[in-house]
């Protein structure tokens, strides 16, 4: 079945550093989504990508839809302590519905 | 504008009891999705419902689990005769329509603990 693998699994960085993480799939996706989940909360959508090659920003976050449509990247610039959380990529699968498959997650810890 | 509301936030059950999890979608949303998250894992799709209809239950375990979204009232995820392996966070999401271009909004989840 389809799988979304994220790397790195976890990152421990200093405040102010830039962060990069990626998500790869065994099959093609037409939409890539990046979510952030904080402890005890549901995922919150950060960025949605709908077109191969698309580069989209949301404040200090930038995400790209890979040309092959099998990967996506998320960058966070000048990290701050409130960036702490687990970042998940996700994409719709099984047809045209909004049923999502989620990646394995990247845990980000930011030291002040 | 209230978001997706789930209750209870925490639910403790003994093995063999029933668990009922409730989800009220965002105002104007008629599509509800339930996901389960085991510790240190991503969310896994369980079921997709519209009002009075189950559209896709391909992620639901075959036994003990059921879901409904009645014409009036919240969506209910029901787990009968719970076992320890059912302990997880259960998240509900909603959207105004069914489209891959439509964003899903998630609730804060119900943490189910089975003793």
Unreliable runs of chain A, pLDDT <50, ≥5 residues?
none
How many DSSP E strands of chain A? 11
Main sheet makeup of chain B? 7 strands, mixed
Distance between the termini of chain B: 36 Å
Helical content band of chain A: under 10%
Amount of helix of chain B:
under 10%
Largest sheet of chain A, if any?
6 strands, mixed
Instruction: State mean pLDDT of chain B (0 to 100 scale).
Output: 92
Which overall shape of chain A is indicated by the principal axes computed on the Cα atoms? globular
* Biggest contact: A-B, 25 and 29 residues
The topology string of helices and strands of chain A comes to EEEEEEEEEEE
β-strand amount of chain A: over 45%
Estimated structural class of chain A: mainly beta
Please trace the helix and strand order of chain B, writing H or E for each element: EEEEEEEEEEE
Taking the alpha carbons of the first and last residues of chain A, their distance comes to 40 Å
Task: List its salient traits.
heterodimer; A: 112 residues; six-stranded mixed β-sheet; five-stranded antiparallel β-sheet; 54% strand; B: 115 residues; mainly beta; seven-stranded mixed β-sheet; four-stranded antiparallel β-sheet; 11 strands; globular
What does this structure look like?
The complex is a heterodimer of chains A (112) and B (115). The termini of chain A are far apart. In chain A, the strands form two sheets. In chain A, strands 2, 4, 5, 9, 10 and 11 form a six-stranded mixed β-sheet that branches. Chain A is an all-beta fold and 112 residues long. In chain A, strand 6 and strand 7 form a beta hairpin. Chain A has strands at 4-7, 10-14, 19-25, 32-37, 44-49, 55-58, 61-65, 71-76, 85-92, 100-102, 106-111. By secondary structure, chain B is mostly beta strands. Chain B is globular and about 35 Å long. The model of chain B has no long low-confidence stretch (mean pLDDT 92). Classes of the chains: A mainly beta (112), B mainly beta (115). Chain A binds chain B through residues 4, 30-31, 40-45, 48, 50, 88, 90, 92, 94, 96-105, and chain B through 4, 31, 33, 35, 41-45, 48, 55-56, 58, 91, 93, 95, 98-109, 111.
